[in-house]
């Protein structure tokens, strides 16, 4: 039928196949016939084929590959549902060979316009990770990107992927923390659960404990720390606890979710409050948890378990709701037991009488296991609340006359435990139990009574030998456990009252000697050696009394939920009371508050910096301004982040180290560094030293962890960090990250000529992901018109010899919206413009990208020796040089460096001489080295460029000349 | 997350299995069967079972066990809640969630499960979205499909999936625009023999059936919102408005849904609508006992009490019951020891009475525990808490909808009214008085 030409027949056949799969029958021999239909137009048929494929692809990997091309085609389909489902199936086929294809598909889908497709991409990340864990680094990149996504649809799924792939990369969350908190209300409910539990872990590492003082809390949301100065001061003082505003934000944004209809959401909010909120605020979760008890049996079970754990620590929380925990006859046994547990935990002096009355009804329950559990609970109440011990004991003794064996047995056991805590006053109870002894048949109970009589035989001197006599008669009929206790009793009586019991004891010992059970024979032999004086065993028998009649510590009756709180509430591990696979420990509060500014996001400002650059002249101007404003601060910042890195362990990272001459260093830790910098700036000759220092710091800053940045430099530093992140991951060998990424954008298409469509481009100075020989260019499209533009794409590449990797077409662009895409261009190491046609659905525009010579490079790090060596090889034709006059301001190293790295994407080579500055890079396409050397002289500088590509060399020389001779 | 799902019937047959990741052999269910055997009754099966390599989380609903296989840490409630959603979805699609219905619609079930979970993580659980993706089966459609060959799978992505109101589908159109709200309240109470309330609480839900065209924005306000103590809402309800103004403002899903559930503050004394006079006693000598139960209405605010059913769980030694009922009829099942007395409507003039003798197993000692009575009832047109809907306003659409509110009071689903025997408390109580 599958081969049939008729759609309906095929569909019918496929339905039957799915029926087979559902029943668990093997349908794998149909694989070839089914796979043929993967490209069928009928959507239902297609879906059923997908179901089949996902089920059997793992078994038939080779045949499954036949279907891949269909999915690849479907990934480009204009219908987002089809794109998404293609990605879903592609990623669900667990065939290792297609990992690269999957990777590519995920990367592309992660920047898809449709949030639904991006959500699917987030799901696919986990699948790929479970298939091939080696892709972790690349996947983390995608996760990082998706975490920035603002769509509520994506948030839950990407956090799920985060939890699965890299739960320890907490640094990725920092900048998205506030966004996640604010979005939380609108995320779909399953996502909420995942996000909340992730944020719980996050908050435990990032905020200080709100539990330290139970006194006055300062919860107002005023700005917490005014400046770094103050911050440090307040950390040193014994300050009243003030909650971090972000911590408060989390609590506030989760609170409404307690009203969710989804029990899992309510539970996760409850655990968040339990683990994070100040003690006096936890109470708000009580009511919601009690509400969950109205839900299904299974839900009750989990919730009760969690309440049981909570109620041990905080009785007050649930006490007003005690009646909700009353057991009903229709409850399942495990629910009854849990309710009992909670009632026991909640019992205190004030309410014990109600609780006990309730317990009495339970004892009568037809469910005997439950009745037994109740008796244990009574025992626990009795030990916990000393006032009622006697009442409980009396009640339990009455229960001894109960007809049911289990009840009696349990009572005896509990009485034994209770008596052990205060034996002296209760000889009458022991007497009573001895009287009942004949009627009790449950072995455990009999054994308990025997033990009691033996232990306290001094309190009941008359009865004890009599009981032993009875036991001697029935010894051979008893259970093993009773026999053992009989032997013990005999031994103890022999020691205390040997006159009356000597013969009895010997008789019992003889019986025990020939018992079938080796345990009993062993015990008998041991006891005999111990107590009966003989020639050999004399040494030990002296101590027999002390061994057998030593005072024994009373047993502690405590809850089974006592130590459950080591697990995070609401987790599977908590339910099982053992670590489940993949359980993530909840960390303790940090002793000191980690830096809170990491969560600052200045997206708006970054956008501002990006947008106003229209046209080249203007852009360079704004660029200058950017420098004069924040260049110095940027240095500070880099240094700061560096010292953050160093001082991370000491925990004092507050003071920025300033390299500028005005700033005075206070930090003792880095005093060495700063004194150097002071010296250098004073003398004006120690430039080089500072340079190297700066380099060092910059390199440290490249490490992507915990980089602090304040508002004004948000852009620079964040870009630096994000670039570094990526570079650290994917660049090999001596390639280094760009020292600096300028922000200027160039115009590709003016909005007048583009009829509403404006396009700008920008060199991101990152290694291109498409091809090593390409330069990555970021294009920003914005729609300034008043109608939607559809299908923006690149149609023809007019320039020859230049390879262009196009961006994926933009489906539609609403008015007033803009979108950024990236493309790769191989300029072949020339400054010739890459021209192509940019098309919308309606029209095409001829545009070109003109690279500056400095953008054709990628920075390289090398040592000074290597630099000289390489320079030596590139003499003569390959060298071009010029002398330039420099303005006095640019004499110092910083402005010079800044100018050079701004103009060209070069790496700084550490230099041993103060007046020599070296930079190295390589050409992106050919990989040829480009070395730049600036030697400062009294009133000018000697500029040298060495490279194989002489044209590039001379162009670079010219550009540098103009840049350096300008005043800053 | 969720690896696999097995559906198992009471007889222990696995009649459906679905895997979202690699296939897990159905032998993993053996651990479940083991636990099931140990538990004796299906209700007693522990919801979380640990096996050497997996964890099994199961729910029992409509005589079907939904057993899911988990491999790593996940909040158990997450899985349980999801499984219940699955069961509800089946109910929604096929009318009832039974083995037969699932077997008959196995393809749709498979398609549903495929959409609801991706790689074990919930994808689409809103019934409105799912119904757009996969059309529910109707006789008419299946006939049309078999003739024309068209499919019942949606071709485009449901708009709800992308919008901020994922629960509502776009392009809804009705000729009659109607919105009905059912306020259903349940009383859960325990009374002692003298009729004193030991424990009572009222739980309510508002179930809605909204069939309105377009994108209506509704506002529902109450006369006395203070009554509501603890509430939980459908995601469509704007929580901010509730907090500030105590009104329910929402864009409703299409069709049937539960708008909110609430709890009425127990401090307000709950008016129990009936009273019971009962006397069950067993004689010390001779193996017999006597039973006498009378029911009467009380505080019903002029409404009739309907569907009254009294259930008594008799002690094991009761062999048979020989009773006469003045109204309705009774059955006694000697195996389960349950006496059911179906009364029907409560009559103010003539109070229903059940009287007669019980025969006990000869020689067995007299039962120590007097049985408790469970009473089930229903009152139309009345919300026992006194909650009243004030008005319903609609914004965003031009037509005038037909609106209706219905009130029902029921006995709670948990214990009903449990009338326990006060004597029972006294037997043991003496030594315990503090």
TrEMBL record, chain A:
Residues spanning the membrane: none
Q: Where is the composition biased (Basic residues)?
A: 694-708
Q: Which SMART domains match?
A: AP3B1_C, B2-adapt-app_C
Membrane-protein topology: Peripheral membrane protein
Q: Where is the AP-3 complex subunit beta C-terminal domain?
A: 705-832
Q: Where in the cell is it found?
A: Cytoplasmic vesicle, Clathrin-coated vesicle membrane; Golgi apparatus
Q: What are the start and end residues of every segment in region (Disordered)? A: 610-709
Biological process terms in GO annotation? intracellular protein transport; vesicle-mediated transport
Q: Where is the composition biased (Acidic residues)?
A: 630-648, 663-672
GO CC terms, sorted: AP-3 adaptor complex; clathrin adaptor complex; clathrin-coated vesicle membrane; Golgi apparatus
Superkingdom field: Eukaryota
Reply yes or no: does the keyword Membrane apply: yes
- Keyword entries, A-Z: Cytoplasmic vesicle, Golgi apparatus, Membrane, Phosphoprotein, Protein transport, Transport
Protein role: Subunit of non-clathrin- and clathrin-associated adaptor protein complex 3 (AP-3) that plays a role in protein sorting in the late-Golgi/trans-Golgi network (TGN) and/or endosomes. The AP complexes mediate both the recruitment of clathrin to membranes and the recognition of sorting signals within the cytosolic tails of transmembrane cargo molecules. AP-3 appears to be involved in the sorting of a subset of transmembrane proteins targeted to lysosomes and lysosome-related organelles.
Q: What is this protein called?
A: AP-3 complex subunit beta
TrEMBL record, chain B:
Write down the InterPro entries for this protein, in alphabetical order. Answer: Adaptor_comp_med_subunit (IPR050431), AP2_Mu_C_sf (IPR036168), AP_mu_sigma_su (IPR022775), Clathrin_mu (IPR001392), Clathrin_mu_CS (IPR018240), Longin-like_dom_sf (IPR011012), MHD (IPR028565)
Q: Does Protein transport appear among the keywords?
A: yes
**Membrane topology category:** Peripheral membrane protein
Q: Which GO terms describe its biological process?
A: intracellular protein transport; vesicle-mediated transport
Q: Which domain of life is it from?
A: Eukaryota
The record's GO CC annotations read: clathrin adaptor complex; cytoplasmic vesicle membrane; Golgi apparatus
Q: Where in the cell is it found?
A: Golgi apparatus; Cytoplasmic vesicle membrane
Q: Which keywords accompany this UniProt record?
A: Cytoplasmic vesicle, Golgi apparatus, Membrane, Protein transport, Transport
Protein transport as UniProt keyword: yes
Give the function comment from the record. Answer: Part of the AP-3 complex, an adaptor-related complex which is not clathrin-associated. The complex is associated with the Golgi region as well as more peripheral structures. It facilitates the budding of vesicles from the Golgi membrane and may be directly involved in trafficking to lysosomes.
Per the similarity annotation, which family is this? Belongs to the adaptor complexes medium subunit family.
Its name, as the record gives it, is: AP-3 complex subunit mu-1
Species whose genome carries this gene: Electrophorus electricus
Native organism taxonomy: Eukaryota, Metazoa, Chordata, Craniata, Vertebrata
- Which gene holds the coding sequence for this protein? AP3M1
């Amino acid at each position: 039928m599958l081969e049939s030409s008729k759609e309906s027949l095929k569909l019918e056949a496929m339905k039957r196949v799915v029926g087979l799969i559902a029943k668990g029958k093997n349908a794998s021999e149909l694989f070839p016939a089914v796979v043929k239909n993967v490209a069928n137009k009928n959507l239902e048929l297609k879906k059923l084929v997908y179901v089949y494929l996902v089920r059997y692809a793992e078994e038939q990997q080779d045949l499954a590959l036949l279907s891949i091309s269909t999915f690849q085609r479907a990934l480009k389909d204009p219908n987002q549902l089809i794109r998404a489902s293609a990605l879903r199936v592609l990623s669900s086929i667990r065939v290792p060979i297609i990992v690269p294809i999957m990777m590519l598909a995920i990367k592309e889908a992660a920047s898809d316009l449709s949030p639904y497709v991006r959500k699917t991409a987030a799901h696919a990340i986990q699948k790929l990770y479970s298939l091939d864990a080696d892709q972790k680094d690349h996947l983390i990149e995608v996760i990082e990107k998706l975490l920035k996504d603002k769509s509520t649809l994506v948030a839950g799924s990407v956090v799920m992927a985060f939890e699965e792939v890299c739960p320890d990369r907490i640094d990725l969350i920092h900048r998205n923390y506030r966004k996640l908190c604010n979005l939380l209300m609108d995320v779909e409910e399953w996502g909420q659960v995942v996000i909340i539990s992730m944020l719980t872990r996050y908050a435990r590492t990032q905020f200080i404990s709100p539990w330290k003082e139970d006194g006055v809390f300062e919860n107002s949301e005023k700005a917490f720390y005014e400046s770094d100065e103050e911050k440090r001061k307040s950390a040193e003082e014994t300050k009243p606890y003030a909650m971090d505003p972000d911590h408060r934000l989390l609590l506030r944004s989760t609170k409404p979710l307690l009203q969710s209809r989804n029990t899992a959401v309510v539970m996760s909010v409850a655990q968040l409050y339990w683990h994070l909120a100040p003690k006096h605020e936890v109470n708000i979760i009580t009511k919601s948890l009690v509400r969950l008890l109205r839900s299904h049996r299974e839900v009750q079970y989990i919730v009760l378990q969690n309440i049981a754990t909570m109620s041990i620590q905080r009785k007050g929380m649930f006490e007003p709701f005690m009646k909700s925990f009353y057991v009903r006859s229709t409850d399942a046994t495990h629910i009854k037991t849990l309710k009992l547990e909670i009632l026991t935990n909640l019992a205190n002096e004030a309410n014990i009488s109600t609780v006990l009355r309730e317990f009495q009804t339970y004892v009568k329950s037809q469910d005997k296991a439950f009745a037994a559990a109740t008796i244990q609970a009574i025992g626990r109440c009795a030990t916990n609340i000393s006032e009622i011990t006697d009442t409980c004991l009396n009640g339990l003794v009455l229960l001894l006359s109960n007809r049911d064996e289990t009840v009696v047995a349990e009572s005896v056991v509990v009485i034994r435990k209770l008596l052990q805590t205060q034996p002296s006053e209760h000889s009458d109870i022991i007497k009573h139990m001895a009287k009942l002894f004949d009627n009790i048949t449950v072995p455990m109970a009999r054994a308990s009574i025997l033990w009691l009589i033996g232990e306290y035989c001094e309190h009941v001197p008359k009865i004890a030998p009599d009981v032993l006599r009875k036991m001697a008669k029935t010894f051979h009929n008893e259970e093993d456990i009773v026999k053992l206790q009989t032997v013990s009793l005999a031994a103890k009586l022999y020691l205390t009252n040997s006159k009356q019991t000597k013969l009895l004891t010997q008789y019992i010992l003889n019986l025990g000697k020939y018992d079938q059970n080796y345990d009993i024979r062993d015990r008998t032999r041991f006891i005999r050696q111990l107590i009966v004086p003989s020639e050999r065993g004399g040494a030990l028998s002296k101590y027999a009394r002390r061994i057998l009649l030593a005072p024994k510590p009373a047993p502690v009756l405590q809850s089974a939920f006592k130590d459950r709180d080591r697990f995070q509430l609401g987790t599977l591990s908590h339910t099982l009371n053992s670590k489940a696979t993949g359980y993530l420990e909840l960390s303790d509060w940090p002793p000191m508050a980690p830096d809170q500014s990491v969560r600052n996001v200045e997206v708006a400002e970054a956008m501002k910096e990006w947008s106003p650059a229209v046209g080249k002249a203007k852009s360079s101007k704004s660029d200058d301004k950017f420098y004069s404003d924040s260049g110095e601060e940027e240095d500070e910042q880099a240094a700061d982040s560096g010292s953050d890195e160093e001082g991370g362990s000491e925990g004092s990272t507050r003071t920025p180290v300033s390299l500028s001459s005005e700033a005075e260093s206070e930090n003792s830790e880095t005093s060495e560094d700063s004194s150097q910098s002071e010296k250098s700036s004073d003398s004006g000759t120690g430039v080089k030293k500072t340079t190297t220092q700066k380099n060092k710091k910059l390199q440290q800053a490249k490490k992507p962890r915990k980089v602090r940045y304040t508002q004004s430099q948000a852009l620079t530093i964040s870009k630096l960090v994000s670039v570094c992140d990526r570079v650290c991951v994917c660049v090999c060998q001596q390639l280094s990250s760009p020292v600096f990424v300028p922000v200027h954008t160039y115009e590709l298409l003016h909005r007048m000529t583009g009829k509403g469509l404006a396009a700008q481009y920008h060199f991101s100075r990152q290694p291109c992901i498409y091809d090593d020989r390409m330069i990555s260019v970021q294009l920003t499209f914005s729609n300034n018109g008043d109608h939607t533009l559809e299908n923006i794409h690149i149609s023809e590449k007019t320039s020859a010899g230049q390879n262009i990797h196009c961006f994926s077409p933009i489906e539609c662009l609403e008015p007033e919206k803009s979108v950024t895409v990236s493309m790769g261009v191989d300029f072949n190491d020339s400054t010739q413009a890459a021209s192509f046609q940019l098309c919308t659905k309606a029209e095409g525009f001829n545009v070109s990208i003109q690279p500056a010579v400095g953008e054709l490079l990628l920075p390289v790090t090398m040592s000074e020796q290597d630099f000289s060596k390489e320079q030596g090889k590139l003499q003569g034709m390959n060298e071009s040089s010029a002398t330039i006059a420099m303005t006095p301001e640019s004499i110092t190293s910083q402005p010079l460096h800044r100018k050079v790295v701004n103009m060209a994407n070069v790496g700084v080579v550490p230099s041993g001489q103060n007046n020599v500055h070296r930079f190295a890079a390589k050409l992106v396409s050919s990989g040829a080295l480009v070395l730049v050397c600036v030697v400062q002289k009294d009133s000018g500088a000697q500029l040298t460029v060495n490279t194989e590509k002489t044209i590039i060399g001379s162009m670079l020389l010219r550009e540098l000349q103009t840049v350096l001779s300008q005043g800053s | 997350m969720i690896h696999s799902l097995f559906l198992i019937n009471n007889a222990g047959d696995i009649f459906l299995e679905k895997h979202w990741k690699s296939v897990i052999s159905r032998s993993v269910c053996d651990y479940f069967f083991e636990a099931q055997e140990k538990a004796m009754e299906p209700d007693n099966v522990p919801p979380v079972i640990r096996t050497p390599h997996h964890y099994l989380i199961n729910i029992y609903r409509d005589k079907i066990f939904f057993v899911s296989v988990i491999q790593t840490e996940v909040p158990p409630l997450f899985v349980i809640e999801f499984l219940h959603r699955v069961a509800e979805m089946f109910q929604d699609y096929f009318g009832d969630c039974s083995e037969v219905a699932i077997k008959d619609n196995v393809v749709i079930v498979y398609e549903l499960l495929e959409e609801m979970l991706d790689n074990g993580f919930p994808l689409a659980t809103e019934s409105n979205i799912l119904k757009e993706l996969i059309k529910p089966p109707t006789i008419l459609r299946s006939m049309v499909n078999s003739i024309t060959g068209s499919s019942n799978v949606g071709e485009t992505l449901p708009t709800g999936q992308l919008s901020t109101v994922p629960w509502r589908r776009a392009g809804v159109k009705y000729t009659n625009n109607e919105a009905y709200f059912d306020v259903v309240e349940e009383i859960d109470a325990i009374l002692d023999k003298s009729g004193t309330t030991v424990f009572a609480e009222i739980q309510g839900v508002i179930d809605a059936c909204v069939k309105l065209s377009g994108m209506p924005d509704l506002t529902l306000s109450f006369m006395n919102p203070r009554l509501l103590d603890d509430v939980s809402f459908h995601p469509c309800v704007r929580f901010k408005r509730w907090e500030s103004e105590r009104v329910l403002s929402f864009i409703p899903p299409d069709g049937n849904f539960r708008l909110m559930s609430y709890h009425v503050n127990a401090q307000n004394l709950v008016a129990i609508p009936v009273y019971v006079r009962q006397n069950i006693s067993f004689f010390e000598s001779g193996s017999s006992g006597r039973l006498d139960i009378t029911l009467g209405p009380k505080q019903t605010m002029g409404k009739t009490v309907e569907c009254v059913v009294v259930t008594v769980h008799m002690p094991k030694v009761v062999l048979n019951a020989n009773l006469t009922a003045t109204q309705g009829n009774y059955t006694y099942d000697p195996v389960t020891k349950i006496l059911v007395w179906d009364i029907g409507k409560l009559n103010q003039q003539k109070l229903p009475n059940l009287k007669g003798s019980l025969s006990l197993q000869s020689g067995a000692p007299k039962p120590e525990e007097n049985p408790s009575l469970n009473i089930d009832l229903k009152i139309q047109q009345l919300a026992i808490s006194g909650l009243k809907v004030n008005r319903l306003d609609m914004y965003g659409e031009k037509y005038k909808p037909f609106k209706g509110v219905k009130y029902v009071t029921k006995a709670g689903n948990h214990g009903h009214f449990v009338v326990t025997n006060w004597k029972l408390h006294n037997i043991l109580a003496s030594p315990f008085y503090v």
